Amino acid sequence: MSSLNDLTFRIGHLTGLSNSDLQGDDDDASPTTGPKARPGTLSWITDAFGPRIVKYIRAVSTNFAYGRPVALDSDAQNIITTSYTVLTGTTTGFTLSSGGQANVTNGDHQGAICFVTDDAGAAGAVPEGEAGIVTFNSATVFTLEPTYPLTAALAVNDTVDIVSNYQTEDTFDGDEAWTVSGICLPTDGITAGNYGWVQVEGVCMARHIASAITEGDPVVTDYRAIGPFGSDGQELHLGIAVATGASTDEAQPFVPVNLKLFTCSSSTSP
Q1: pTM of the predicted model, to two decimals?
Q2: Is 178 exposed, middle or buried (0-12, 13-18, 19+ CB in 10 A)?
Q3: In this predicted model, what pLDDT tens digit does every residue of 165-178 receive, in sequence order?
């Protein structure tokens, strides 16, 4: 089996959850407190707030506080990729130049998609256009899933994009909705490097900035918080505020939002 022939790999399934599951801050390094679900898993739940869709993600850069929005890891805003140039490689991995390259942190890309954007040796030659799955990365070495290899070895000056699927970081003002993973659910947050649940769809209490948010209006991301949409385009809209909030004298800076990230608006009008 190779990445050239199959468009799916290691199928997972939807599962139910308890409240204690949703409070998880799961350490990948511990056999007793390791991941409690397959990373990237979606689950449909319902509680007193109504129906919700939640997703199991990994925090790769900073600690996430509950109620904060988080976005897919990348090397720039409004994309979900980090690009690298290969020094040496095989069909199941590659090495970067001595000392690594920008934006490489041990383990941050674990589980991400490795997409080969260019074969430097010949125009359009394999493995250009193929993809593998990262099993681990250091600052200089990336290992790919050995049972899902590329059809040809990576070589010097080939370029790859590492595409995030559940690896997450802080949000910023201007993040488009398609790059946003959800709202952090565990009351004690998710520790950097650990796994936990975020909400993708349905009503959720979300942290906001000190700007007026009006019931019935869309909301967008700001730095580690949500904010009013103002003059932003539809591609930034995360959902709809279901109450008016964001006054500066609140003891708890939260407002209920009906999230619409499962089927968020695209960057162009239909």
Answers
A1: 0.89
A2: middle
A3: 999 999 999 999 99
